[in-house]
Amino acid sequence: MIGIAIKVSKGYATYRVHDVDGWHGMIDTRNTNINDFQNGYAGNNKPIDALEVYYYTPEEVIKGSGYKKAVYHVSPVNGEYFDWQHDNEKDNGQDGYAGVFDMPIDRVQIVIE
């Protein structure tokens, strides 16, 4: 995987990827456009090995059912998925992102819960 674009139907999320060049800048789903090579998606045509996502819950959802999180995981190329990551949390064995540096990924699953 060399690039990723994320879109949500309510609220918005920010996300960034890591590759051999390090962490790239945050992308905001309110600006996601796969044709915008500067700000529309995360990645720069190099294998991605980690992903960080944070979901911003809209006020009407908070009032109705509380705060939500992006819950996501990735898999190394031809491997099994790693453990789930919740937003960019760094507790309960989470390190703030999904993936392992120097192990390129080929799949991503994300849910809002």
Quick take:
By secondary structure, this protein is mainly beta. The chain contains one helix and eight strands. Strands 1, 2, 3, 4 and 7 form a five-stranded antiparallel beta sheet that branches. A three-stranded antiparallel beta sheet has the order 6-5-8, with no helix packed on it.
Calculate Rg over CA atoms.
14 Å
Helix content: under 10%
Poorly predicted runs are none
* Tally of helical segments: 1
Which of globular, elongated, flat, extended, rod-shaped describes the shape?
A: globular
Question: Approximately what portion of the residues adopt beta-strand conformation?
Answer: 25-35%
- Order of helix and strand elements from N to C terminus: EEEEHEEEE
Task: Characterize the biggest β-sheet.
Answer: 5 strands, antiparallel
In angstroms, what separates the terminal alpha carbons?
25 Å
Give the class from helix and strand content and strand pairing. mainly beta
Residue-averaged pLDDT: 95
Q: Care to count the β-strands?
A: 8
